[in-house]
Structure formats: C-alpha cells, structure tokens
Amino acid sequence: MIGRGFRVARAISLVAIVSAACTAAPSGPTPGPVRTGTPTSDVVRLTDVAGAVGLHFRQGAFRWNVSPDPAAMLGGGVCWIDYDSDGWLDLYAVNSYARAEAGRWQDEGGLPRNALFHNEHGTFVDVSAGSGADLAVRGNGCVAADFDLDGNTDLYVTTADAGALLWNEGDGTFTEGAAAAGVEAFGWHAGAAVGDVNGDGLPDLFVAGYADLQNPVGATSLGFPNTYFGVRDLLYLNRGAAQGGRVTFREVGADAGLEVVGFEYGLGAVFSDLDRDGDLDLYVANDTKPNRLYDNVPWPGGAKADPARIGFRFEELAAKAGVADPNAGMGVAEGDFNDDGLPDLFVTNGRGQVHAAYLGQASEVVNPSFADVRGDLGLHLKGPVGWGVSWGDLDLDTDLDLVVVNGDVPVTDLGKDAQPVQVFGNLTAQGSAGRFEDLGDTWGMRELGPLLGRGSAAADFDNDGDLDVAINTIGGRLVLLENSGALGNWLEVSLAGFAPGTRITAALPDGRELVRRPSRGAATSPRRARAPISGSGPPERSARSPFAGPTGRRRSSRM
Length: 559
Description:
Blueprint: E1 4-6, E2 19-20, E3 29-31, E4 45-48, H1 70-74, E5 78-81, E6 90-93, H2 102-107, E7 115-120, E8 123-126, E9 139-145, E10 154-159, E11 164-168, E12 174-176, H3 178-181, E13 189-196, E14 204-209, E15 211-216, E16 228-230, E17 234-241, E18 247-251, H4 253-256, E19 266-272, E20 281-286, E21 292-298, E22 312-316, H5 318-321, E23 332-335, E24 344-347, E25 356-361, E26 369-372, E27 386-392, E28 401-406, E29 422-426, E30 436-438, H6 445-448, E31 453-459, E32 468-473, E33 479-484, E34 491-494, E35 503-507, E36 513-516, E37 528-530, E38 544-548, E39 554-558
Parallel strand pairs: 1-34, 2-13
Antiparallel strand pairs: 1-3, 4-33, 5-6, 6-7, 7-8, 9-10, 10-11, 11-12, 13-14, 14-17, 15-16, 17-18, 19-20, 20-21, 21-22, 23-24, 24-25, 25-26, 27-28, 28-29, 29-30, 31-32, 32-33, 34-37, 35-36, 35-38, 38-39
C-alpha cells in the first residue's frame, strides 16, 4: 500500500541512538496522503521552521564567555518522543552550561534547564515547567524508551555528572528515578542505546563512558580527552518490576565483556543485529581510540554456566570485522544504504579526519564483516568535525540519504566555530548503488548557514510522510528542518510493544522488496518505521508487508 499509514502503539526511541529482537504486528490502517509525480532531488527543501512552529530554545553553554570547559563543549542532545501517545511526536532538548557561568546563571534566575515541547498537530508548546523533565544539568544525550512497558515512553538523560531516568507517569509529568532503578551512571557519560540484549523481552540500557575530569593523566603528548582517564562503559539489564514497584536494573558491563582491556572515550553507540543471527550486537564510536564492535554470542552452557547468570557475552570483533576506526569517533548510524539487505555503518569523525563508511559484506572468515568504502561514495568526507548523523529517505525515492551535523571543538568562538550541515543524496535508486552526491546547497543548507551543531534526530514531526530533522547546538538556538517537496509515496508502520529490532519488508507488485528496520538510536518514539515507495500514479492496492523480527518469525499484512 502506498500513501497510507499504520499508526498508534508505543515502543522505544533512542540517540542515538534502540533495538530488540522480536516480532511485532501492525495496527490498523489509517488513510494518508497520496503523492503524484516522479521523485527528484531538485524539489526537496529543508527549511528551518523552529521559531515559526513554537520551538523557542537556546542552549545555555557559554552564554557570556567561552571558557575551557570540555563538558560544556560537547553537550546538546535531542530526542523525539510521543510522551502523551497522541500520534504526534513531541521534542525533548538537552541543555547544559559552563561551570564558570553557574553563579551568573543563578543571579539571572536559575541554571539552564532541559526543555519538553508538546506537538499540537505540527506546532509546539513548551510544557517544561511542572513536567519534571526540565532538569538543570550539564547534559549530553538522551534516549526515549518505554523501560517499564506500561505504554508510556520514558526518558534517560546522560550528563557530565550522573545519569537521570525520567519515568513517564502518563499524565504529562515525569518522575526522576535513576538511583532507585540502579542506573545512576556516575561520571561523564555521553551516548546511550536501548535494546533487548538477553532476549527476555525487556528493554536494556547501554551508556557510553567518556572522560573522568577528576582523574587527569600524567605527562602525555596527546591532546584531550587523552589528558584524562576514561570512564567505563555500562550495560544495565532490565530486571522487570517487583510486585507493586518500579523496574530496576543490574549493571553487567564487565561480566558481559565490555572494555576488557581499558576504559576508552565512548560517544556514539547503536544496537543492531549486525550479523543477522537473531540477537542484538553493539557498535561504539570512541574518541581517539579504536571503535568497538561487540558481537552478541551465547554463553557456553547458557545462563546457568556463567558466573553472572546473564546467558550471553560480547566478543569484541571490530578489527576482524574491519570497523576498528582509530580516529576521533563521534556519532554513529546504521542503515542499509546500498539496498543489498546487509547492515551498513557510518561514523562521524573529528577535524581533518575522513568520516568512516562501512559496507556490510558476506564473509567466510568473520561474521559480521564490512568493507571500508569511505573513498568510494563519491563524497568529500574530510574537514568539519562531525557529530549527529542520521540515515533517512529524505526525497522518498526508496534509498537512504544522509544528514551530518557539524561543529568545531574545542570551542573558542561560538560564531567562528560554526560549520555547515551536510546533506548527501543517495544515488542507489538512480542506478548507482552506494554512491552519493552533495545536495546541501540544493536542499537549503546555504540558507540555513553554519551551526555549532551537536545532537540531531530525524522524524516526521508534521505527519506528512517525509522526514524532518531536529538539531541542537552549543550556545545557540534549536533548529527544526522541515522537509518539503518530496514527491514519492510512503508507508508508515507502527509497531505494537517493544519492537525496534523488527524488520519490515514491503513487497511490491513489480517484484521489488523494500526492507526497513526501525531506528536504533535515541531519536524517535513511537518506533514508526517508514518504508518509502516512489511512484507517479495512483497507489497499488495489492502490495503486502511482511513483519519479522531477527528470529525469523513473520506476520503479513495485505494493503
């Protein structure tokens, strides 16, 4: 079916980046717009409408002066979350501030706070005050997920000091409960990802540790973050709720095999079934250290045979799999950008370094396996400092385009350190599989101008069938790029329950199959997976959409 949407049902949302191995059923169909015309990159425009739709937010770092404060330089996450389950995605923006300006902020009325904006049919209302979500923190990232599976999407926020878990009470308010749940994550943690790593049907939480600013390294010729010791990555297994109580978690990172050699500087992370064996693997982008790929494998003998009784372990395979990029890894996104059915990876890197692009490939030696294709995409990927990165079919031509948000670091001048947002159009649908063209100027990035960008998240905020992009910045305003002009048709699927690892295949009358997996990063909620379908005539009614989890179980819906 083209031009219809399957809606309703909550699931999980990440930043960065969220996954689970399970089967989901579609909810009932709701009519959506049918578009006519041939998809073309020339008509797509990305226009900043943040102010026009009510998103009035300015990030608090370096409001009066720039100071040498690394934590304030890196903050700026953003999450889409349908917290009231009305079918319209709301927006959560993470704030921060420099320690040197804390006193000034207090004199001016209080520290900067995170903001929650309610989506009212495409316009936003700031509902932060009284919501319990307006934390005054030196924040980094956020991930939205229904941790207790009560039908209300919760939030987890990473900061420079400790994590915060915001339980959604279902009445428009949130209650902070990280300590009681066992997920405080003391110290500076940046990226977060959610997925069911042990197959018990409950959302688990990974939090990437960054730098310990209280524990400097001695003499070193390396720059930040290597001037400080790293912070340990954490993996929290969901224990479920006790009788009449909240959900609690157990930290098992070391037992599962995370960072067995030493603590590195993790920033981005994503859960995905990279080897397609039915469980969730983990990829972590490290700053100035090799990135890590943790393959999820059964513990020999099962849960009863291992000391921690977790039943699985992570085997680190990054070097063998070809994805141990040693550069300053920042953001990471997974998606099949050449439409061959295999997961691919894209990692943003630091100044003057080439971003990493890895194409999934079959191998008899190691599974998963990837080819480094950063030199084969047809793009100039060296120069700016990359942060948030999102795959999404922006022009609705059936392949995945790429948005990279940039901004220099260390921050010395809010204006001079701003860098352009990059938008790369995928040419796979035009017959050049895995090749891209730079469409930033064509799609409106010149009019937007440079940003001191950090976090980003792609989602359809106005329910018109195409993907829009929210961007948070350092010391600047929130940006919302509204997508207009895309001519392709679209299919939207909402997944009942906790099901972000589900694979959706749209089987078309002409024999083509379009495969999409719900996003695994802290970006959107509910998990509304879109399989875009292009066409110039009326929609065909004979297409069908099978739904399958990585376990291979399938359900089919005819449209």
